[in-house]
Amino acid sequence: MSGLIETNENNGIVEIQMTRKPVNALNPELVTGIHQAIDEHTDLGAKALILSGMEGIFSAGLDVKILLTLSREDIDSFFESFWGLMAKISKSPIPFVAAITGHSPAGGAVLTTFCDYRIAARGDYKIGMNEVFVGLPVPIIIHKGFARLVGENQATILTMQGKLMSFELAENIGFLNEVVDQDAVVDRAFEWLDNLTKLPTNAMNSTRLTAKSELNDLIDRELSLMTNSFSDGWFSDEVQQRMTYIVENL
Q1: Measured distance CA(127)–CA(148) in Å, rounded
Q2: What's the CA gap between 110 and 128, in Å, rounded?
Q3: Which domains, ranges and CATH numbers included, belong to the chain?
Q4: Burial 205-244 (b: 16+ CB within 10 A, else e)
Q5: Which residues lie below 8 Å from residue 50, measured CB to CB, with a gap of 6+?
Q6: What percent of the chain has pLDDT over 70?
Q7: Is 133 exposed, middle or buried (0-12, 13-18, 19+ CB in 10 A)?
Q8: β-bridge mates for residue 49, sequence order
Q9: Which of 77, 94, 223, 243 is the most buried (most CB within 10 A)?
Q10: Gap between the Cα atoms of 245 and 191, Å rounded
């Protein structure tokens, strides 16, 4: 999808780079583009996948300006697609690494949470689940995915405050696995996956998915319930007023 996604393959590992300027805001077209790229390259036999952004920005999260203009039907469709993307990453039959090239709040952080490994750029960047800041509750699947990485107590404190973290803090509490120089993020993701995919494939992928089985079981149970409840919250007066204020002050 021109202007939204670029792909780069090296030794069977495929980078899916979000290129929607200026900040990779997640609108329906970008989310669909990521879905399509994942499906295409998985079906073509990729060994592993990388999701990356542009220099200084991974993704600014949901494109609130666009989403505020959508009908209830279109919002339902968007969140069904976004939650489905989250699930697709988590349940990927091949390893999936987030190459976090810069800021990654809210929806951007959500997508990285469900990857198998997170490599981020060194710098004055922020990441985290700040949904509460705009008046939205953090769904249980996202909370549990986050807590799986940083622990229940840290996840609860950070999400209920809607707090963004520096990459240094995110690495210290276990959310980020590595922080490297900006120009090394994607290369390091390829290197890490190249080493991983040299292991016996079935044993590695079976172990990887076993480790995520409780989270993926939760996704299977709860995913269909998320869209309606989240859309209800989206159209509440509190959220609409809060998001309109944020958009007007961008």
Answers
A1: 17
A2: 8
A3: 5-185 (3.90.226.10)
A4: beebeeebeebbebbeeebeebbeebbeebeeeebeebbe
A5: 13, 14, 15, 16, 96, 97, 98, 99, 186, 189, 190, 193
A6: 99
A7: middle
A8: 14, 96
A9: 94
A10: 43
